[in-house]
Amino acid sequence: MTNDELLTYDQKHIWHPYTSMIHPSPVFPVASAEGVYITLETGEKLVDGMSSWWACIHGYNHPRLNQAINDQVKKMSHVMFGGLTHRPAIDLAKKLIDLTADNLQHVFFADSGSVAVEVSIKMALQYWAAQGNTKKQKLLTVYNGYYGDTFGAMSVCDPVNGMHGMFSHMLAEHIFVEAPACAEGVAWHDEYIEEMTNALHNHHQEIAAVIIEPMVQNAGGMRFYCAEYLRQLSRLCKQYDVLLILDEIATGFGRTGTLFAYQQAGIAPDILAIGKTLTGGYMTLAASLTSKKVAQGISADGRGVLMHGPTFMANPLACSVANASIDVLLASNWQQNIKHIEQQLCKELVRCAELDVVKDVRCKGAIGVVELHCPVDINWMQPRFVELGVWIRPFGKLVYLMPPYIIKEAELNKLTQAIYQVLVEFNQQLRSSSSHFF
Fold first, then answer.
1. Which one is catalytic: 48, 111, 143, 276?
2. Which end of the chain is less packed: N or C, by CB atoms within 10 Å?
3. DSSP state of 35
4. Taking a C-beta distance cutoff of 8 angstroms, is the pair 406, 336 a contact?
């Protein structure tokens, strides 16, 4: 098939994320990827500002990650994890235990971020059931959160502005409070945590766990909040005997400037979900880590076993490349790289705030966000970015960057310049259409 024929077949038969088969969004066929560049079948080279949905922190086609895959496939590409084990999984578990909070001593390997959240929720619910406490069956979380697209994960995503409202009548009902409103560097006031405090005070007897994304609410709006909120939340969970689940699927492995975002608050969760960057974007793999208290507590009644077991759990190829990815990260100057990326994002995106269509500009670690007053026009904006030689995937009212950590100053500048140019043009479009924003 020619390139045009490939695209026609794709649009007719293949569902892409969050798209319609009646009115499909434009897609761009990729021929190869190297470093921070994606090369299309049509020959264009695009600077990648997305890290392929935040996963490819080392860029593409990394020689050490390639070698890890090649070495492992000669031994075994997969073996079931029921009744069997293997060195790549054991090595990876040890790495994760050594890198995370001291209380996290047990690892359950899952096959995606959503599944890691499902497993984390199951851990919390089964823990309390095994203690003979049948009342603790609800979760407490905040608005503007996103935890995945499977049913358990959907049930704790934002129920008002999230993507899953059509499923509300099928989802478990949980308790929501206002999202953190405290910015980093601003004086703390107890009112920031007041609604969460009241919810725990009034409902702790039915709450199994609080689940939250630490420091950054990602796909729910790219919202940043202060470390003190997490410290106060951790204290409240201990006070009211409620487990704390942290979702670091997007923020884990350095994205916010520390290896894990919760470290900025100096706390330790009872359960930690990680994924995305775990394999450097090479293969799908995730994990739920938990404490001895929870792991042993699930079997406290003498009968309980954790009721989950994916077919490709702890896939040897994925575990091998995850081990290599972590080694590459730790051997690099990643902290300085993240700091430089943050400084450049702050410096170069700030002028977007001068545009009428822009509501806010904010940066944290290797995350740069431009929030608009109105939704983006993805069908115009996406091809326009490609014309400018960059890969940027806006959503909702957000145009944002989460680039690979290896990106160079000139490459990052090309991304920020493209954002400014596209938003200038978008601003002009809205003015010419007499938008109510002006």
1. 276
2. N
3. B
4. no
> pLDDT by residue (tens digit) across 146-167?
999 999 999 999 998 877 888 8
From 111, 158, 247, 270, active-site residue: 247
Count of domains forming the chain = 2
Which of 60, 127, 146, 229 is labelled catalytic?
146
CA distance 253 to 286: 13
| Residue where a domain terminates, one of 287, 307, 331 | 331
Q: Is 127 a catalytic residue?
A: no
CA distance 207 to 198: 13
Residues 269 and 381 in one domain: no
The verdict on residue 119 lying in a domain is yes
The Cα 432–Cα 176 span in angstroms is: 40
98 is catalytic: no
- Answer whether 137's CB lies under 8 Å from 208's CB: yes
> The pTM is what?
0.96
276 catalytic per annotation: yes
Does the annotation count 18 as an active-site position?
Answer: yes
| 13-29: pLDDT as tens digits | 999 998 889 988 889 99
